[in-house]
Design brief:
By secondary structure, the protein is an alpha+beta fold. The strands form 2 sheets. A 6-stranded mixed beta sheet has the order 1-4-3-2-6-5, covered by helices on one side. β8 and β9 form a beta hairpin. The protein is globular.
């Protein structure tokens, strides 16, 4: 079941950005996963990306932005999220994306 949303600002008012695990784009619809909740917004992923605190988030392919604090592990070409989702890493940029992930994770742990 998906709760309607007017976008990231609407979700942000309800919840903290850092508690968002995954943001997924399917065409003109964006799904924002927060805990057990899934919110729908009609915005472009690029627009939402500009509103995020990118200290916590990483664009890992054309359709997904992940919260690095919500990653359980990296296996092959996927981020395995704490909520059970498996998010694909863009293959041609895997090395760079995984390096950025570990760098962000390290900075957050300092």
């Amino acid at each position: 079941d998906v709760a309607p949303s007017r976008g990231l600002g609407d979700v942000y008012k309800r919840q903290k950005q850092r508690e968002i695990s995954v943001i997924e784009s399917e065409g003109r619809v964006v799904y924002i996963y927060h805990g057990d909740e899934k919110y729908r917004a009609y915005q472009r992923l690029n627009t939402i990306e500009q509103k995020l605190n990118m200290k916590y988030f990483l664009r890992c392919n054309q359709s997904y932005i992940i919260n690095v604090e919500q990653v359980d592990g990296v296996i092959d070409y996927d981020f395995h999220m704490k909520n059970g989702m498996v998010i694909p890493i863009r293959k041609r940029d895997k090395k760079d994306i995984v390096q950025k992930y570990y760098q962000k994770k390290s900075e957050l742990n300092d």
